[in-house]
Amino acid sequence: MIGEKIRQAREAKGLKQTELARMAELANSTICDIEKGRLEPSLKSLNKISKALELTITFFISNDYENNVKKNNQKTKAV
Length: 79
Prior knowledge:
mainly alpha
């Protein structure tokens, strides 16, 4: 889950949600909702967050992408 990875990366940097929100030029409520899984970040927002955390976008989406590909491949094979 992207929100969980963002939370872990934020905490690893010792940042509060409000600090990350300011650095990424997003609303604090947006960061909170993303981290809690209530909101999927847009590509633009994820780019801002990744830059603020000094990480690449792929850090946040790589496992989700790989898991979705695996699930889709399993469904295809089962048909």
